[in-house]
Specification:
Largest sheet: 6 strands, mixed
Structural class: alpha/beta
Number of strands: 14
Distance between the termini: 57 Å
Shape: globular
CATH architecture of the largest domain: 4-Layer Sandwich
Strand order of the largest sheet: 3-4-5-6-7-8
Strand content: 15-25%
Number of domains: 2
CATH superfamily of the largest domain: Ribonuclease Z/Hydroxyacylglutathione hydrolase-like
Helix content: 25-40%
CATH class of the largest domain: Alpha Beta
Bound molecules: fe (ii) ion
CATH topology of the largest domain: Metallo-beta-lactamase, Chain A
């Protein structure tokens, strides 16, 4: 049977090379197809494809258009969640369990105003998991980060870059090994986070994006905290060229942001106090949050 497959491939591709077949099919196979066939990869039930050692998944919360990112070291199975949402913690735990992962950090890019972080619920389910946020956010957490700190999970790592301006404590997390960055709300695809509350400052946001994000190589992929139009990923080069806000001059950007006149965030009075404790909510606060959501849906 295998011999027949090889003959067919040779017929279709006269210059077929067994080396190429090896890389395509993931098997060692000799042209003679005698006894040298052997599997190079043995897929165990919990072994998943990874991008050069990193297992990466982008997850979505419909209610607030929030992205949560699951990253794991495919060698050790140590894993982190960036910006988990409290309503979706059951999904995230089940998913991590199915993949055989060991969640060690629940990381927030900032103190969110539009939803309650899932780190509190994650810690209830996984007592060894640590909550993480920037020191400048003013939130309490197991681990408070500063500019230049490194977060490691297995053989993977993220560099922490402070990107204040949307809030005073925003942090962007960068994987240089995989040429990707998680920007929270500092930079959205063709947009950016608002700057009219939580120590927001358009001048600071402009500087943060240009100095900490646009200074990365153009081919770094950028993963935002939200998207409202169906986009999932962008790149440094793309946003440097096409972002309608951040391609403005600094003066024009500040003027634009000051004139947005956006509505007051619907959950800010519930979310911010809870998120300042990394999602450890009192029952009263949780019930209040649910009542507001019920009215809105
Ligand atoms: Fe935000």
């Amino acid at each position: 049977m295998l011999r027949q497959v090889v003959r067919n491939v040779e017929r279709i591709l006269p210059s077929w090379n067994p080396e190429v077949a090896t890389s395509i099919f993931g098997v060692n196979i000799s042209r003679s197809c005698g006894t040298t066939y052997s599997r190079r990869y043995s897929m165990k039930p919990k072994e998943m494809p990874s991008d050069n050692g990193l297992l990466f998944r982008q997850l979505f919360h419909e209610g607030t258009y929030t992205y949560t990112y699951l990253l794991a070291c495919s060698k050790t199975r140590d894993a982190i969640l960036i910006d988990p949402v409290d309503d979706m913690v059951d999904r995230d735990l089940k998913y991590a369990d199915e993949l055989g992962l060991n969640l060690i950090y629940g990381i927030n890019t900032h103190v969110h105003a539009d939803h309650v972080t899932g780190t509190g619920k994650l810690k209830e389910a996984l007592p060894n998991l640590k909550s993480v946020i920037s020191a400048k956010s003013g939130a309490s957490a197991d681990k408070c980060l500063e500019n230049g700190n490194i977060i490691t999970f297995g053989t993977e790592y993220l560099e922490c870059r402070e990107t204040p301006g949307h809030t005073g404590g925003c942090m962007t997390y960068v994987s240089h090994d995989h040429r990707m960055a998680f920007t929270g709300d500092a930079l959205l695809i063709r947009g950016c986070g608002r700057t009219d509350f939580q120590q927001g400052n358009p001048s600071q946001l402009f500087d943060s994006v240009h100095k900490q994000i646009f200074s990365l190589p153009d081919n770094y992929r950028l993963y935002p905290g939200h998207d409202y139009k169906g986009f999932t990923v962008t790149s440094v080069g793309e946003e440097k060229t096409l972002n309608p806000r951040l391609t403005l001059s600094k003066e024009k950007f500040i003027e634009f942001m000051r004139e947005l006149n956006l509505a007051y965030p619907r959950l800010i009075d519930v979310s911010v106090p809870a998120n300042l404790k990394c999602g450890t909510l009192s029952k009263a606060a949780h019930d209040g949050s649910q009542q507001i959501l019920d009215k809105l849906h």
